[in-house]
């Protein structure tokens, strides 16, 4: 109790400090030494698809502001806003043409400031997306760079001679199709792009680039931003000698040779930039989140920095690769990230990954499974990042015809890969036309599931996915063991039920997740944990009628049940 009181006092001080200076919110640790982001629930908003205030079919910042009460009531502490900077929208904002403004389709800087101040009133922080690897080809830096070999900005990007007519400098492939090199006939050289040709890579070896990009972060910190999610951070650097990448057997999603990105992915130099970027962030009390696609725990560990001096929150995407309800696979992944020594960051899906509702749903018990997955990643030690709509059980609405696809890689990969439109469809607010997202036709079609899965309806239904998220987030916010407790796996050989304790000082919370469609009975012997109680006091379950207590000697679980309980000594 005392701990919580101190934490709230410090938080209030943090907020006062912020509003006085108009700066980012200070890194105020609580009495336990926790930073705000360690206790926060993050929520990703894809602004095109959240709420459309001016009814042009595309979501906007005022739309987000209009939903802040909803987010506060849900239990959201920080919003990660995917890019809303001016952009030609080739990659829907991940091609930035001006880092210090807002695209008119989303609003104005004033709208942004209002979003920050209205969020702050509700205790919600704003995290911007920082597209750090590349700009748009329409950015003034690139336009200048491209204008002549003698441009002052030439070396802001990666320009190289080809190996001969029609032969790019090396064999590197773009992640979004074809060669990673585009020839510019005007200056007779190739430029490098890890993603689309309209997204030329910045040259991070140039100190002027570094300074300009660091200044961008300062600009937003001064506007009250509490941190950044760093886009595509793995690919900031390339081998200056441009060695060819090794090829492995098989083909990639485009039918091109499968390549190991040995010379243009996760180069060690990235860590130097992150350390420096972190210093700037620390001056402003801001947090850095990483889009870190790591293949193993050693790679993930590096992003925290040897002494925790790089990213506070590198996302653990390995968790999203467990695409089945497998207690043993989840146990393995959780143990790995726990072993990293860093603070885990859990994600179930995002604007690039098929929604969790589809990935885990069995077609019959999808809502129960959506609650089960919430019961998992919202009770683990670490910070969760939710994806908008996950809390109402939103599902993918994939395009049915190639001509409807908006995401360019979906057109390129059709029909094998349909792109990312499916996970980016409009938020479902109610059962009115366009799910209440907009009065105009929305830029992507609303999911046909919206009459049953929408905020308004689920708020009325005590058994809905949304209500379960709300209860769970409320519990998480006020339970010391769920916030700070260590993770202790239990019954590690159980093939159907994933169970663990969260232990914090004298508090212990038991989480039991039945990952199967059959009922199960489980038994817990917690004596090795110095817990002698034979009963558990229920905190939250997915059952219609909540038992006040349950026996640890024989706990009966319904199919896909989430059972969360307090254990006393
Ligand atoms: C990762 C972003 O999440 C994705 O949407 C984007 O297409 C690429 N980076 C390129 O910026």
Alpha plus pi helix count: 15
Rg on CA atoms, Å: 24 Å
Given the C-alpha coordinates, what overall shape results? Answer: globular
Which percent band covers the strand fraction?
15-25%
Largest sheet: spatial strand order: 11-10-7-3-2-1-13-12
Structural class: alpha/beta
Largest sheet: 8 strands, parallel
User: What is the multimeric organization of the chains shown?
Assistant: single chain
**Which bin fits the share of residues in helices?**
25-40%
Give the bound compounds: 1-deoxynojirimycin
**Number of strand segments:** 21
Structural account:
The chain has about 575 residues and is an alpha/beta fold. Helix content is about 25%, strand content about 15%. The protein has 15 helices and 21 strands. It has helices at about 1-20, 60-65, 70-75, 110-120, 140-145, 205-220, 270-285, 295-305, 325-340, 355-360, 365-375, 410-415, 455-460, 465-480, 480-485, and strands at about 40-45, 80, 125-130, 160, 180-185, 190, 225-230, 245-250, 255-260, 285-290, 315, 345, 385, 485-490, 495-505, 505-515, 520, 535-540, 550, 555, 560-565. The strands form five sheets. It has an eight-stranded parallel β-sheet with strand order 11-10-7-3-2-1-13-12, covered by helices on one side. A hairpin with a 5-residue loop joins strand 8 (about 245-250) and strand 9 (about 255-260). Helix 6 (about 205-220) packs parallel to helix 7 and helix 11 runs parallel beside helix 14. It is globular and about 75 Å long. The structure holds 1-deoxynojirimycin (NOJ). 1-deoxynojirimycin binds near residues 94, 231 and 232.
